[in-house]
Amino acid sequence: MENKIDNQITNNLPPTQYGSSKGPNVLSKLLPLTGFIPPIGLAVAVYLWSIKKRKMAALLTVFISGAFIVLFVWLYSTHKTSTTSSYRHTYSVLQTTNTGGLVSGQSMVFSRPTELQPVKNNTDFTKISPDIVKFNAYEQRLKSGGSEKTVGFIYSLSKVLQVNPALKPQRLQSLNDILNNTSSNEQYNQLALPVEAYAIYILKPYAINFSRAQPFKSQQVQSGAWRFDFTASSADSNQPPLHGQLIYLIGKQSQYYFVVGATKDNWNYDLSIWRQITYSIKIDQAN
Q1: pLDDT, position 161
Q2: What is d(CA 279, CA 281) in angstroms, rounded to the nearest whole number?
Q3: Which of 84, 132, 219, 262 is within CB 3.0–4.6 Å of 152 for a Cys-Cys bond?
Q4: Is the pLDDT of residue 10 over 80?
Q5: Where are the domains of the chain?
Q6: Is 7 exposed, middle or buried (0-12, 13-18, 19+ CB in 10 A)?
């Protein structure tokens, strides 16, 4: 099932853009120029070196050519990643998605942009949890520099809630007291770090910085849910920074982890769509 995003929101958004209107175009024009100058400069330097009293001029020419080589390498690297890092997209159609559950009644349902397509993911969660999990991945990929990079993503995960039903109200109250900013850092970390670990594991090798948890509520989810905003950076300069949210929800028999995000520019360009995605989440649904 597909549904059009609210017209008022869509009409207020500018059309799809691929970075700055000047950035990539300027780089494309400068690259050939900076690559053309060094060979000519070196040839001139050799010629000047052969002429008496022109050795200083030759050395200066070599220095200038070297500077252009450095500039060429920098421009090439910047141009190679600019398409992905500055990618901005306006999403216009949402598709209802049912992740399926480990058993009936433990599925998650949400709306996702049609551009985010299901992808195979063989992540082994047994390294961080002994529990059997249900994992689904949806990504929007963009070809850049001869390879594909992910510019938008949704990762959903569910596992059986290991809590005695009779103790669940006390468990939820404890989570509320500790995660809702009324606890010490030590108490908070004891609960928050295991939740954050799933997003960290999914997005590795990115380094992730989480905000403190905030209660999450929507028309479909009134309690037992928290939102962790995050930013992520990579040691690889070819990988653009990410922004996103981790939503942690406790259902009747399962607990759910919902990770949604995008490259920084793409996330900030269309914040309304990411909000609609998280607000569409329904848990404990039939498969």
Answers
A1: 73
A2: 6
A3: 262
A4: no
A5: 20-85, 90-285
A6: exposed
Give the global pTM: 0.70
- Cis omega before residue 205 (within 30°)? yes
Structure tokens at 130: 């002994």
User: What is the reported pLDDT for 226?
Assistant: 94
Q: Which of 135, 131, 142, 124 is nearest to 80 (CA)?
A: 142
Residues 6+ apart with CB under 8 A from 230: 199, 208, 209, 210, 211, 242, 243, 244, 245, 246, 261
Report the chain's terminal Cα–Cα distance, integer Å.
15
Query: Which of 202, 262, 208 lies closest to 233, judged by CA?
Result: 208
pLDDT digits (tens, 9 = 90+) for 76-116: 555 444 445 678 888 989 999 999 877 778 899 999 999 99
* CA dihedral of 118, 124, 127, 128, whole degrees rounded to 10: 20
CATH 3.40.1000.10 corresponds to the domain 90-285: yes
Q: Give the separation between CA 240 and CA 89, rounded to whole angstroms.
A: 15
Residue 284 to residues 75, 154, 171, 176, 278, Cα–Cα distance (Å): 51, 19, 18, 20, 16
What pLDDT is attached to residue 281? 96
Q: Judging by DSSP bridges, how do beta strands 17-18 and 117-118 pair with one another?
A: unpaired
Residue that is written with structure tokens 């995605």 in the block: 277
